[in-house]
Every structure is written in C-alpha cells, then in structure tokens.
Amino acid sequence: MATRTNATPPAPQGLPLALLLGTTADAVQAVRAGASLNDALARTPLAARPGTQALAFRVLRRLGSAQWARRKLAFRTPPPAIEAMLLTGLALLWPEGEMPYAPHTVVDQAVTAMNARAPRNAAFVNAVLRRFLREQAAIVAEAERDATARWNHPAWWIERLRVDWPGDWEAILAADNLRPPMTLRVNARRTTAQAYVERLARAGVAARALEAPAQAVQLDAPMPVDALPGFRDGDVSVQDANAQLAAPLLAARLGRGARVLDACAAPGGKTAHLLELGDFDVLAVDRDAARLARVDAALSRLGLTARTLAADAAEPAAWWDGTAYDAILLDAPCSASGIVRRHPDIRWLRRATDIEAFAAQQDRLLHALWPLLAPGGRLLYCTCSVFRDEGERRIDAFLQREPAASLAASPPSPGHLLPLADNHRDGAPSAGEGFSTAADGFFHALIQQRPRD
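The structure corresponding to this sequence follows.
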C-alpha cells in the first residue's frame, strides 16, 4: 500500500468534478465537525480519494476566507452539508495562484453535485457562488481586513504566533499555506544521499542532496513512494529534513549496543533512523497499539530490528525493567503546529486550550522518563511545534526543576526551527508558485544528565 506523503497530489483525471466536489464537501464537513482529514479520507471511495485529498487540501488552506465570504453572502447559516458545499466552492473560486478549474466550471459542477444530493438547495448554491463571482474583487478586498480570513488560521493561533515570533509571525502564517517539499531519508546502511540522487536521475527524477542533514534528499516534485527506486527494498524513507535532525543528535556519542528508549515512537521514522546510524539496543514504546504496528512495518521494510511495546511512556512503573537507558528520545505529543502545510486540517481542529493540555502532558513525560536515564546519559526532547510553550518554555521549566540536567554543549541543540527559508541550512533555491522548499517547524533540545561524582 502506498504511503501518504502529505504533499498535495495533482488534480485527478477521469472522475467527474461534480463527484469530487461532493466527496470534498463531505471531508470538509467532517473536519468542521471535529474529525481529522485522514479519517474523512478513509471514508471516501478509493477511486475518489486522491482527487478528494487534492481539493480538500486546497479548501482547508483557504477555509478562513471561504467562511468569511459565506457569512457575507448568506446571512443565515445553512445546514452543514449545504454549507460545506458552499465553502468548497468559495475556496476553489478564491483568486489565488494557479486555479485548478475555470470559475464557471466550479459553479456548474457544484450545482450538478447539489442536484444529485439535495436538489432543493441547488438554486441557493448557484446564487451564492455566482454572486461571489460578480462581487469578487470587493469581497476579497474586504476579507483582507479580517485576520482569520486573511491568514486562514484561527484568531487565537494567529495571536499566539504574533506573541511568540513578533518578527516572523506573518511569514510563518504565509508559509503554512504553501505546499511542502517531499524530502527523503536514505538508509545510511545502504547508500548515500548523493548516490541516491544519481540513481534518481537515471530514473528521470529530479532531486538534490541537502547539505544537512547528511541523509536528506529533496525531490523537485512529489511522487508516489512506491515509484521511488529502492523504496520497497528499504533504501529510502520519507521524512522531513528537520525531523531528520533528531536521530543524529541523540546518536552522536552512543557506542555499539547502547540502550536507547524511543518513547512515543509511532509511526517509527526516528526509531528507524537511529538504527540506520548504529547498532543500538532500542525499545520503541507507544501507547497506541495500532500505530505501533506501523513502527514494526517500517523496521521490517528497512531490515532493522527493535523491541516494540504498547504502553504509556508516562507510566514506566508498568513496563520498565529497572535498567537505565544510555539515551532517551522523547518525541512528545504536541499541537503539530509546525507541520500544518502537510496537515491543513490541524489548524481548524485545534483549540486554544489544547496548548496548555499538551504542555502539561509534555511536562508529565519529561518528569516520568528522566529517572530512567543513566548518569551521564542524554535525553532528546523534540516536538513538531512552532509554539514556544511546547518548546523552549517546556525545557526552561524542566531545567529549573532538575538540578542534574543541563543542555548538552556538543552537539548543540537546534532549538526552534521555523518553516521558513532562513531555517533551511543549505539555502534552498526558490520554488514554483504556491510551493516551499523550507523544512517543517520543529523544536529539538538535547539534555545531558550530570554524571555522578
């Protein structure tokens, strides 16, 4: 089965647009009701899934604008299914970049979809969408004065970024609405980044090796993973460049056979990367048994071995054997605010109160796992978040509570990395319209435990 890359796929060929607008509206309705886009797509007919994903990504990246326009054009809130179709149409009609379909085609096919689903509402959908086209310039200009409509993020999210990153918040919000790069991690046990780039070139695939991390290769355009040379044989995996920083940081001073705990390990990218870098004794723990199965599958494809355990990392009394670990990787649950380019539904699913809840969970995990570390050992804390409350503020608070803990001097911790070009260490070239070559937003802190006297 193909692995989802979270890069926006091309618009599909062969399926009626009316059908895809219907399945896209269903997905948008599900997200607005609190479901993840992944779950919504899983309920979409298989043949329509790629096209639905492509359109849903575009709609969710423009959902704030579409919601504002719907309120402007239809004062009374329609039933959820009708509103979802309106939002889908308005987002696809919004004048921005390359349009996947001509405006009159979107309107016509949205009406066709409504005639098949709820014919009594087809005229209403037609009237709203056609009015938007007539008044488009004025509506778009007015929407720019509303923060959520302009930036397509919830107001609380925008304000948090403005406080956390006063010089970068606008650039982060703009970057969140771009398509992300597809970045690969070559298996260091089998090949090098440059050798794999040359292999791709022979297959007609344009790519480049990044200067850092050492195993990273960035494709010029996304492609199905099963089409990657050597993917099935374990030569390469999909992993963002900033996510690839974690394993080398932790492995830098580990010897052969070192005991390593990978807490919250699923889906297993960092687990596998650690084992590609050295012969370590790794225990991968995750509380979700279904997601843990993905760790086993990834290791099997790559020809790697680790012990896996379905357990709550924050409750080590239930599973720890009492032998200390030389290193611990804590890829903590978080808001995922650094990867919204790949998961555009996240911004609409999160609530302001979630950040406090995630921070409490992160503190709990740090407190529970620290005693499992051997004297002189190291713990790497990382999150895919750009919010300081899930990054540096968590580590600052932890270091104040733990006198035996300090940031490791070598290798230095990257800290917060934003999804911006100047956070991409090798100066990525400019990309096409609507596309970014910058890596995802992450936070990494490598914490050293003081050796005993």
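The first strand starts at residue 183 and ends at 186.
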